[in-house]
Amino acid sequence: MKYLLQGSALIIAIFLYSCNSKPAPKAETTPVAAENKPAIDTNQKTVLATLIENKNCSTLIAAINQAKMTEAVGKFLPFTIFAPSNEAFSKLPKGTLDELMKPGHEEKLGNIIQYHMTLGVYRQNMLVDKKEIEMVNTQDIHIARVGDKVTINDKAKIVDSISLGRGMIYIIDEVLMPPVSVSK
């Protein structure tokens, strides 16, 4: 029930934002070029479309599909995702990813994916030491920064970033697992 309410809240927020949004200001972007392809205007792309084109994020895309979150992640609205690379998924304990990708685990997988996403665009200069960011699943991640090196939850490191007009993608080297809630 909790996830149904959180999912409904996300959909309502997306709907309200899309009804009331003004065009986003142009962000500083670097066109993303692939071999033998022209540069892409990243101001016009969604986070999901950009992730799909990134070969290093194919496991994340498969997880988004399996969790039935493609529509929500594909919306053209401002959000930031800390996207685990394929290598990050391979670091999970043996069998974990296979278990999460089985039918019937969509809610748990969705919670993990939501723990990697936040509404709003967090540019690199906003990721300051000791910052806490509330993620879509309502739990916080913790940022540590020393110079240009950013760590999330004392574990995951940002290895690459892609700035979009209405979003930000940080490729990270670990999968962030949401903290287990303890009932009192």
Essential attributes:
disordered N terminus; 7 helices; 184 residues; alpha+beta; FAS1 domain; globular; 7-stranded mixed β-sheet
Outline the structure in words.
The chain has 184 residues and is an alpha+beta fold. The chain has a single domain (2-14, 45-172), classed as FAS1 domain (Roll), CATH 2.30.180.10. It is built from 7 helices and 7 strands; from the N terminus they run H-H-H-H-E-H-H-H-E-E-E-E-E-E. The protein has helices at 2-20, 47-53, 58-66, 70-74, 86-90, 96-100, 106-114, and strands spanning 79-84, 117-119, 132-134, 140-146, 149-152, 156-164, 167-172. Strands 2-1-7-6-5-4-3 form a 7-stranded mixed β-sheet. A hairpin with a 2-residue loop joins strand 4 and strand 5. Helix 3 crosses helix 7 (106-114). It is globular and about 40 Å long. The two termini are 19 Å apart. The model is unreliable at 1-42 (pLDDT under 50).
SSE inventory with pairings:
Blueprint: H1 2-20, H2 47-53, H3 58-66, H4 70-74, E1 79-84, H5 86-90, H6 96-100, H7 106-114, E2 117-119, E3 132-134, E4 140-146, E5 149-152, E6 156-164, E7 167-172
Parallel strand pairs: 1-7
Antiparallel strand pairs: 1-2, 3-4, 4-5, 5-6, 6-7
Brief rundown of the structure:
The chain is an alpha+beta fold. 32% of the residues lie in helices and 21% in strands.
Strand content: 15-25%
End-to-end Cα distance? 19 Å
Rounded mean pLDDT score: 80
Largest sheet: 7 strands, mixed
CATH uppermost class: Mainly Beta
CATH fold title: FAS1 domain
Q: What is the number of domains? A: 1
Helix content: 25-40%
Name the CATH superfamily classification. Answer: FAS1 domain
Would you list the SSEs in sequence order as H and E?
A: HHHHEHHHEEEEEE
Radius of gyration: 16 Å
